[in-house]
Amino acid sequence: MTRPVAAVVLAAGMGTRMKSDLHKVLHPIAGRPMLMHLLASVDALAPAAKVVVVGARREQVEAAVAETGASVVTQEPQLGTAHAVLQAKAALAGFDGDVLVMFGDVPLVKTETMRAMLAALDDADVACAVLGFRPDDAAAYGRIIARPDGVIEKMVEFKDASAAERAVTLCNSGLLAVRSRDLWPLLARVGNDNAAGEYYLPDVVTLATADGRRSVVVETDADEVAGINSRAELAAVEASWQAAKRQEMMAAGVSLIDPSMVWFAHDTQVGRDVVIEPGVFFGPGVTVGDAATIRAFSHLEGATVGPKAEVGPYARLRPGAKLGEKSKVGNFVEVKKATLGTGAKVNHLTYIGDADIGASANVGAGTITCNYDGFFKYRTVVGEGAFIGSNSSLVAPVTIGAGAIVAAGSVVTRDVTADALALVRPEQTEKVGWATKFRAAMNARKNGG
User: What angle do CA 207, 212, 217 make, to 5 degrees?
Assistant: First the structure.
């Protein structure tokens, strides 16, 4: 298939069942708006054009696709799917090639499936290629009546189907591929003489058949064409996506102790021999190197974990966190916009933000980098091999030299020389016998003395 390709994505539905101020097709799956999942699959075809047809909340969709090269057009009023596709005609003026018609709320259609639909048009006698599927429950889907060789004899909406036609298990996803030179004349002939009084896109197949042209069905799995119209359906598609991603990860050499308790983002990259314990959540932008360990109940987003590094349990890596090889971030540690060098350790109850921690440095429990003064952020630098004692505060901007030691409980506001000891706390004093006298006085007071 060498012909140019254009995609028309229908997203004009009101999405009222979502009960949301956010456009339906912008609700995320695996950390990415469902529309962007679909456009990413389309982009793998190197399309000549992409048009998204919207109704309400056009500005939200325009902002979301601003950097994708897609144009946005409005369908108003909304008179059915055929009418919606017709709104893209002006945006595709002069285009001569194959057109894929997709739905923005059917986000998981694979590029390979799109290619199969387009390949069906290699036969000059084929007018349309329709994507069909066989769900466990055909419910109210439109039906495809096809011969064993895939040639479509009839397509009918559920509302207009006879009892015999409703017994057919092959259903219409609504997605199709058609040549542009055929699409616009066919759409112009579609009528609305049906139970809903709408202009149905599948009628282009009926019209082509009446003209003596063949249309064919390309079948795919039901999960691939699952539509999303409610929060419950969104959750179901998310679960389906996650299940497939977990299988993919394990097949690639990742160990998931309890696969059902690990959640990936659309772009999570994990190396071989990585072990991921239960309760781990990956937000967008995470890369994990070979043989790393992500312990239970950790949250990672926008972070890079080096080979053989260890994270958690109960750790949080925020955007900009970069962990070097064999480094360690332990329990209840938060890292943001900070780099840990090879072998560096931040083991317990610590916040490291806007910082560079040198190789083999050790940051003690309860330490924080004080990076924000209420107006601006500042950076902390800890040199190689430095040791930061527990419960220390490093007030940025500050540099701790290589090999230096910061004593526990210190509040460091000035740079520390390499290999020096920084001790920033009052000298300890004692009052012998004071505690005995204090307890006696308090007991007397408690007893009314």
Answer: 70
Three-class DSSP category at 207 = helix
Question: What domains lie within the chain, and their CATH numbers?
Answer: 5-225 (3.90.550.10), 255-422 (2.160.10.10)
413, 431 contact by CB (below 8 A)? no
Task: Answer yes or no: are the C-beta atoms of 390 and 372 closer than 8 Å.
Answer: no
pLDDT surpassing 60 at residue 1: no
The number of CA neighbours under 13 Å toward the Cβ of 398 is 20
Separation CA 201–CA 299 (nearest Å): 44
The confidence band for 88, taking pLDDT boundaries of 50, 70 and 90, is very high
- Report the 10 Å Cβ neighbour count for 195: 9
Query: Locate tokens 């007991």: which residue?
Result: 443
Which residue of the set 23, 37, 83, 348 is catalytic?
Answer: 348
Count of positions (residues) in the chain? 449
Active site residue 348: yes
What is the distance between the alpha carbons of residues 262 and 50, in angstroms, rounded to a whole number?
A: 34
**Terminal-residue alpha carbon distance, the chain:** 99
Q: Which two tokens stand for residue 136?
A: 């466990």
What is the value of pTM for the model shown? 0.89
Closest CA to 158 of 178, 177, 174: 174
> Which pLDDT score, from 0 to 100, does residue 426 have?
86
Beta strands per DSSP E along 192-270: 214-220, 255-256, 262-263, 269-270
Confidence of residue 46 (pLDDT cuts 50, 70, 90): very high
CA dihedral over 164, 167, 170, 171, signed as positive or negative: positive
CB distance 65 to 39 below 8 Å: yes
**What does the pLDDT look like over 204-221, one tens digit per residue?**
999 999 999 999 999 999
Bridge partner residues of 129 (DSSP): 177, 216
Half-sphere exposure of 24 (CA within 13 A, CB side): 26
**The tokens of 130 are what?**
């329709």
d(CA 411, CA 368): 10
User: Which pair of tokens denotes residue 378?
Assistant: 């500042």
- What's at 229, amino acid-wise? N
